[in-house]
Amino acid sequence: MHVSEGAGDVSALIATPPDAWAAYVFAHGAGADMRHKFLEEVSALLFDAGVATLRYNFPYMEGRRRAPDSPARLELTVETAVREATAEFGELPLFAGGKSMGGRMTSQAAARAILPGVRGLIFIGFPLHPHKSPSTARATHLDRVHLPMLFVQGTRDDLADITLMRAMCSSLGSRATLHIIEHGDHSLAVLKKSGRTAADAMNELRDAAVAFMRQILKEKQ
Known about the structure:
Blueprint: E1 2-3, E2 8-9, E3 12-15, E4 22-27, H1 37-48, E5 51-56, H2 59-62, H3 71-89, E6 94-99, H4 101-111, E7 118-124, E8 149-154, H5 162-171, E9 176-181, H6 198-220
Parallel strand pairs: 4-5, 4-6, 6-7, 7-8, 8-9
Antiparallel strand pairs: 1-2, 3-5
């Protein structure tokens, strides 16, 4: 996948189930690339549910650099990935988002209205604020996003105080849906003492994403 304006080429992984009814453009978080186990597992669960995925690297990760690219370059990469997905998946309804930083960069691109054809956004562990520094400054651009948004958040997420998340989503009105994974951390890992398993949390994430996509598609009929 070629990113314009000097960002170079980045890798992408495409998985299309034979019965695909939707597609998800899936960006990685700040510290792990598109092949991270978490992204692999989410993509596999969506595949089994009939959702195609396009995962991709940001340029800094492709070049094996530790520091993320500028927001402008990250957003440009999101835009390019959406364009590639449109060409790859044809008439499949398109959704976009990602894990942590990848989701935030997708939302920033959407706030600039550069994601044509995307029906809705799905964020997994949206990084509302820096580690244990509660704030909503990172969410101010969401007022300019005019797409339905799903936020899947754990109650133990150090990058998203759940009380602030509730208030932020409420302020966005009907555009925002908040799905809370009880006892989940930033990667939705749950405590053993909660009585829940990792599989429980991941299946809940899949079910929330699928229900969100189906609801949007139903409303568009």
